[in-house]
Amino acid sequence: MARAGLTADRLVAAAADLADEVGFANVSLSALARHFGVKDASLYSHVRNLNDLRTRLALHAGGELIDRIAAAVAGRAGKEALAAFADAYRTYALEHPGRYAATQIRIDQALIADSPALRRTAEITYGMLRAYGLDEPDLTDAVRLLRSTFHGYCALESAGGFGAARDVQASWDKAVDALHLALAHWPRETKSDD
Q: What is the pTM of this model?
Protein backbone atom coordinates (compact mmCIF):
# COMPACT_ATOMS: atom_id res chain seq x y z
CA MET A 1 0.00 0.00 0.00
CA ALA A 2 1.26 3.50 -0.84
CA ARG A 3 2.29 5.69 2.06
CA ALA A 4 -0.26 8.46 2.71
CA GLY A 5 0.69 11.72 1.09
CA LEU A 6 3.36 10.23 -1.14
CA THR A 7 2.56 10.82 -4.82
CA ALA A 8 4.43 10.73 -8.10
CA ASP A 9 4.24 14.54 -8.26
CA ARG A 10 5.77 14.88 -4.78
CA LEU A 11 8.53 12.45 -5.74
CA VAL A 12 9.32 14.40 -8.90
CA ALA A 13 9.35 17.73 -7.04
CA ALA A 14 11.71 16.29 -4.43
CA ALA A 15 13.86 14.76 -7.18
CA ALA A 16 14.08 18.18 -8.87
CA ASP A 17 15.29 19.79 -5.64
CA LEU A 18 17.72 16.93 -5.10
CA ALA A 19 19.04 17.25 -8.66
CA ASP A 20 19.82 20.92 -8.09
CA GLU A 21 21.54 20.06 -4.82
CA VAL A 22 23.62 17.01 -5.78
CA GLY A 23 23.43 16.86 -9.58
CA PHE A 24 21.02 15.08 -11.88
CA ALA A 25 23.32 12.06 -12.27
CA ASN A 26 23.26 11.55 -8.50
CA VAL A 27 19.47 11.42 -8.13
CA SER A 28 18.52 7.96 -6.94
CA LEU A 29 15.46 6.19 -5.62
CA SER A 30 17.37 5.42 -2.42
CA ALA A 31 18.11 9.11 -1.82
CA LEU A 32 14.44 9.96 -2.35
CA ALA A 33 13.33 7.17 -0.05
CA ARG A 34 15.64 8.53 2.66
CA HIS A 35 14.24 12.03 2.08
CA PHE A 36 10.69 10.78 2.66
CA GLY A 37 11.64 8.38 5.45
CA VAL A 38 10.38 5.30 3.61
CA LYS A 39 11.87 2.14 2.16
CA ASP A 40 12.92 2.17 -1.49
CA ALA A 41 10.16 -0.32 -2.33
CA SER A 42 7.52 2.23 -1.25
CA LEU A 43 8.43 4.41 -4.23
CA TYR A 44 7.55 1.74 -6.77
CA SER A 45 3.87 2.43 -6.18
CA HIS A 46 4.46 5.84 -7.79
CA VAL A 47 7.30 5.36 -10.32
CA ARG A 48 8.31 2.23 -12.24
CA ASN A 49 12.07 2.64 -11.80
CA LEU A 50 14.88 5.19 -11.82
CA ASN A 51 14.56 5.77 -15.57
CA ASP A 52 10.85 6.54 -15.15
CA LEU A 53 11.65 9.00 -12.36
CA ARG A 54 14.34 10.71 -14.44
CA THR A 55 12.02 10.95 -17.44
CA ARG A 56 9.30 12.49 -15.26
CA LEU A 57 11.89 14.90 -13.86
CA ALA A 58 12.98 15.85 -17.38
CA LEU A 59 9.38 16.57 -18.39
CA HIS A 60 8.80 18.55 -15.17
CA ALA A 61 11.94 20.63 -15.67
CA GLY A 62 11.17 21.13 -19.35
CA GLY A 63 7.79 22.52 -18.34
CA GLU A 64 9.37 24.92 -15.87
CA LEU A 65 11.89 26.06 -18.47
CA ILE A 66 9.33 26.70 -21.21
CA ASP A 67 7.07 28.56 -18.76
CA ARG A 68 9.94 30.98 -18.12
CA ILE A 69 10.75 31.29 -21.79
CA ALA A 70 7.10 31.83 -22.75
CA ALA A 71 6.73 34.62 -20.20
CA ALA A 72 9.95 36.24 -21.43
CA VAL A 73 9.11 36.18 -25.16
CA ALA A 74 5.43 37.13 -24.86
CA GLY A 75 4.69 40.09 -27.14
CA ARG A 76 8.19 40.13 -28.63
CA ALA A 77 9.51 39.21 -32.08
CA GLY A 78 12.80 39.04 -33.93
CA LYS A 79 15.96 39.97 -32.06
CA GLU A 80 14.04 41.10 -28.99
CA ALA A 81 12.31 37.69 -28.72
CA LEU A 82 15.56 35.84 -29.37
CA ALA A 83 17.36 37.77 -26.61
CA ALA A 84 14.49 37.20 -24.15
CA PHE A 85 14.41 33.49 -25.03
CA ALA A 86 18.18 33.17 -24.64
CA ASP A 87 18.29 35.03 -21.33
CA ALA A 88 15.43 32.99 -19.83
CA TYR A 89 17.14 29.78 -20.97
CA ARG A 90 20.51 30.78 -19.50
CA THR A 91 19.03 32.01 -16.21
CA TYR A 92 17.16 28.74 -15.70
CA ALA A 93 20.24 26.66 -16.56
CA LEU A 94 22.40 28.55 -14.08
CA GLU A 95 19.82 28.76 -11.28
CA HIS A 96 18.72 25.11 -11.56
CA PRO A 97 21.70 23.06 -12.78
CA GLY A 98 20.25 19.67 -11.88
CA ARG A 99 16.85 20.37 -13.36
CA TYR A 100 18.53 21.82 -16.45
CA ALA A 101 20.68 18.69 -16.84
CA ALA A 102 17.48 16.66 -16.78
CA THR A 103 16.15 18.62 -19.77
CA GLN A 104 19.08 17.39 -21.85
CA ILE A 105 18.32 13.66 -21.68
CA ARG A 106 16.82 11.85 -24.63
CA ILE A 107 13.12 11.13 -24.13
CA ASP A 108 11.07 8.51 -25.94
CA GLN A 109 9.29 10.14 -28.90
CA ALA A 110 5.93 8.72 -27.79
CA LEU A 111 6.25 10.54 -24.45
CA ILE A 112 7.17 13.76 -26.22
CA ALA A 113 3.99 13.59 -28.29
CA ASP A 114 1.95 13.17 -25.09
CA SER A 115 3.69 16.00 -23.20
CA PRO A 116 1.91 19.37 -23.30
CA ALA A 117 5.09 21.08 -22.05
CA LEU A 118 7.25 19.66 -24.82
CA ARG A 119 4.64 20.45 -27.47
CA ARG A 120 4.52 23.99 -26.08
CA THR A 121 8.33 24.18 -26.26
CA ALA A 122 8.21 23.33 -29.95
CA GLU A 123 5.39 25.81 -30.60
CA ILE A 124 7.16 28.70 -28.89
CA THR A 125 10.60 27.94 -30.32
CA TYR A 126 9.37 27.38 -33.87
CA GLY A 127 7.05 30.38 -33.61
CA MET A 128 9.95 32.63 -32.65
CA LEU A 129 12.01 31.30 -35.55
CA ARG A 130 9.20 31.68 -38.09
CA ALA A 131 9.46 35.44 -37.47
CA TYR A 132 12.81 35.12 -39.27
CA GLY A 133 10.98 33.68 -42.30
CA LEU A 134 12.24 30.14 -41.76
CA ASP A 135 10.45 26.99 -42.90
CA GLU A 136 11.47 23.33 -42.77
CA PRO A 137 14.13 21.99 -42.98
CA ASP A 138 15.70 25.30 -41.98
CA LEU A 139 13.57 25.51 -38.81
CA THR A 140 15.01 22.25 -37.49
CA ASP A 141 18.53 23.34 -38.38
CA ALA A 142 18.02 26.68 -36.62
CA VAL A 143 16.61 24.98 -33.50
CA ARG A 144 19.69 22.76 -33.39
CA LEU A 145 21.97 25.78 -33.75
CA LEU A 146 20.25 27.64 -30.90
CA ARG A 147 20.11 24.64 -28.60
CA SER A 148 23.75 23.70 -29.12
CA THR A 149 24.91 27.31 -28.68
CA PHE A 150 22.83 27.94 -25.56
CA HIS A 151 23.66 24.57 -24.02
CA GLY A 152 27.36 24.81 -24.80
CA TYR A 153 27.63 28.30 -23.37
CA CYS A 154 25.70 27.42 -20.21
CA ALA A 155 27.68 24.21 -19.68
CA LEU A 156 30.98 26.04 -20.01
CA GLU A 157 29.85 28.93 -17.82
CA SER A 158 28.52 26.73 -15.03
CA ALA A 159 31.76 24.71 -15.03
CA GLY A 160 33.87 27.88 -14.78
CA GLY A 161 35.21 27.28 -18.26
CA PHE A 162 35.53 30.95 -19.21
CA GLY A 163 38.80 32.18 -17.74
CA ALA A 164 39.49 35.24 -19.90
CA ALA A 165 39.07 38.69 -18.38
CA ARG A 166 36.23 39.52 -20.80
CA ASP A 167 32.88 39.87 -19.00
CA VAL A 168 30.84 36.67 -19.46
CA GLN A 169 27.60 38.65 -19.88
CA ALA A 170 29.15 40.77 -22.63
CA SER A 171 30.21 37.63 -24.48
CA TRP A 172 26.71 36.17 -24.05
CA ASP A 173 25.15 39.32 -25.49
CA LYS A 174 27.56 39.18 -28.43
CA ALA A 175 26.68 35.51 -29.03
CA VAL A 176 22.96 36.39 -29.11
CA ASP A 177 23.70 39.24 -31.54
CA ALA A 178 25.62 36.80 -33.76
CA LEU A 179 22.76 34.29 -33.64
CA HIS A 180 20.32 37.04 -34.65
CA LEU A 181 22.48 37.90 -37.65
CA ALA A 182 22.78 34.23 -38.60
CA LEU A 183 19.00 33.78 -38.40
CA ALA A 184 18.27 37.01 -40.29
CA HIS A 185 20.65 35.95 -43.09
CA TRP A 186 19.97 32.24 -43.00
CA PRO A 187 21.42 30.29 -45.95
CA ARG A 188 18.24 28.92 -47.51
CA GLU A 189 18.24 25.58 -49.16
CA THR A 190 17.64 25.87 -52.89
CA LYS A 191 15.35 23.43 -54.60
CA SER A 192 16.64 21.95 -57.81
CA ASP A 193 14.41 21.60 -60.84
CA ASP A 194 14.09 18.02 -62.00
A: 0.89
